[in-house]
Amino acid sequence: HRPADTEGKDMASGCGRRARACTLLWIGIGLIGCGALQPPIFSARVRNVAVRSRAHLFPSDPAGVSPDATVGRRAALDNVMRSVFSAATVFSAGPFGSARAAVDVESLVETKPVEMKSFLDPMGFFSIRVPKIFYILRRSAKGDLPDASGKGRRGASIFTAGNLAKSEVVAVERFPVRVLLEDEGIRADGDISTFPAIAQPLAVATLLTQRRERERGGGAGAAGSSTRTKLIQDSVKMSEDGRTLMFDLRTAVEVQKPELQQEMTGRSELVRITFARAELRSGDGNLMVCYASGLETDMEGPDGPALRDTIDSFAIYDTSSVVIKQ
To answer: Residues 291, 268: contact at Cβ < 8 Å?
Structure first.
């Protein structure tokens, strides 16, 4: 008979029980906090176990222990494990999970705003704010910048930023207003310093959309076109002074296997949303347009407000007295 060893074993057994009780208690609290533990699972029996666990941890303060709390350790463990498996069902919901499970996961994820950074054009044309993760390319090589007719190796584009991983792109174009009209067979006579002087806002937005599609090789009637871009008419807005025009575009991208697309994403088509802002504030006869686009699935999250902020931050400076060297 070795009393010292027996006492040590009793102490170790007591510590083990207390550690298990503490673990069960914290698991239950965590599940309640994240919403995975629902009232039907967290029954009165489990609450009694929590109280008994507190009594084990703090023997000197047994207040609140119910005399009916007779649930054993095995029953308590069964209840908590059922809660854990219930939570696992929620968190494991993927593209093939139930719609309810997917909604539950989204409700448990905290959405953080996208960090932004500012860019000031070194040539003094504009300033803009884009997501911090975006790469930035300001074209400056000879031939890359558009000439007096608004044409260059890169079309009318003078600035590009984006996130290749998500196919999100921000582009700034600069070209003469008269070129926009003459390309459509419209004479550029008279005052063209405001959008109402050129045409109705919807008509101007349509002209800009058609020009963009032609430069991208996806215009109406283009051979092998794999996109279908539509102007969202309700999105067309013009500033009070008639120098700012904003509108949105919706592009349906052709996919080779729509059935697989439906199975993986729950959508039968791949759609890009584009925010656009056109400005007539340079004072030199040029029109500057900013486009910010991304996949519809990403735009429904925090990327949508971030790219909308990019469009809202687009500011043009008066360059009527600046000599541009090509």
So the answer is: no
The predicted-structure confidence for 159-193, as pLDDT tens digits, reads as follows 999 999 999 999 999 999 999 999 888 888 888 99
Q: Strands of 135-138's sheet, edge to edge?
A: 135-138, 157-163, 168-176, 286-295, 270-279, 244-253, 227-238
Residue by residue, what is the 3-state secondary structure of 38-88? CCCCCCHHHHHHHHHHHHHHCCCCCCCCCCCCCCCHHHHHHHHHHHHHHHH
Strand-strand pairing, 227-238 and 315-316: unpaired
Tokens 């925090």 locate to: 302
**Alpha-carbon separation of residue 62 from 39, 57, 58, 83 (angstroms):** 25, 10, 7, 27
Q: Are 127 and 312 in contact (CB under 8 A)?
A: no
d(CA 82, CA 73): 14
> 182-206 burial by CB neighbour count: b if 16+ within 10 A, else e?
eeeeeeeeeebeebeebeebeebbb
pTM here? 0.64
Distance from C-alpha of 280 to C-alpha of 197, rounded to nearest angstrom: 11
Decide if 191 contacts 197 (C-beta within 8 A): yes
CB 248 within 8 A of CB 275: yes
